[in-house]
Amino acid sequence: MNMKYSRGAAGNDFFFFIFFIIVLGIVWGLTGGPDRSISREGPFLNPPFPLGDGTAYNVPGVSIPSVNTSEQAGSQREDSGGISGIISRIRGGVSNSSEKQSPYAGMVSLSVGRAKDSDENKEYVTLKTSKSVEGRITISDWRIESTVSLIGTTLGGAAYLPYSGQVNQETPLALGPNTTVYVVSGRSPIGASFRVNSCTGYFAQFQEFNPDLKKECPSAEIELETSINADFVPNESCLNFVEDIDRCELTLTSVPVEVGGACQDFIFNELTYNGCVQSHKSDPDFYKNEWRVYLDRDQELWKSSNERIRLLDENGLVVDAITY
């Protein structure tokens, strides 16, 4: 005999089953759900009374790790941030609290300069010492680096008094108060890092510096006045020619014969970088509170955005950091 069940009866049984599952879920949630300690105590249950108490028990070698729900929620929020979360942490300087501060913090500051430039010879950051610095701070062994790319380098030494047309010896870089250092990523146009002085403007006539070197050389007329002596009294032609020579520039045009031999010697020997140094290196204002340091990179060092650069002392402690 064939037994037939109506489609309506089967549907009622199905909906009753679903309703039963939902009720169980509600009861489970009201009694603690996943936060109940039993859900983390072990993978097996003791049998109910009278054979057991119905609690969970552990099997040796088998465990379920506990989960800190607050940490899990925080992790989910962090993951949901994706790249934007990483960028915000970079901009905000996350992990600053774990970085140990240098005793020089506050004495030397770091600023962006032109770190965003893509040309390594134009890309630079700026260091500046406080006016309150006492004595000198030696920074040759200090390091500057990106916390994003993890690329960096030590600052190295510099020529205290550079000369033109020769190899300049670099010595430890020691800074006094209120001093500015331009740290350029590229190579030095004169082959060395150096301290700026009253005559370094001559370097800018044939080479490019970033930022520009100031033309602070004594004018040609002043140099001529201080050179007049019993053996050299310039004539009218010499005076007129020297007046047209620009400050901190070598004479590239032909010098007329009528200026006289002594005037020609003055122009070609005194109105040069080395001649300027020889005449003025003992002046009280000869040396400037400015240095140019070159890192000898063949490509840009800093990112154009989403970058964090920090300055570390010789012990790896953070002197200052910038974010952009």
Q: Over all CA atoms, what is the radius of gyration?
A: 38 Å
Poorly predicted runs are 1-6, 59-81, 88-95
Which bin fits the share of residues in helices? 25-40%
Q: Give the name of the CATH superfamily of the domain at 79-198 and 286-324.
A: Lamin Tail domain
* Structure summary, number of beta strands: 13
Mean pLDDT across residues = 83
In the CATH hierarchy, what is the architecture of the domain at 79-198 and 286-324 at level 2? Sandwich
Query: How many strands, which pairing sense, and closed or not: the largest β-sheet?
Result: 5 strands, mixed
Structural class: alpha+beta
CATH fold call of the domain at 79-198 and 286-324: Immunoglobulin-like
Element-level helix/strand string = HHEEHEEEEEEEEHHHHEEE
Order of neighbouring strands in the sheet with most strands:
3-4-9-11-10
Distance between the termini: 85 Å
Beta content: 15-25%
What is the CATH class designation of the domain at 79-198 and 286-324?
A: Mainly Beta
> Which outline best applies?
elongated
Count of helical regions: 7
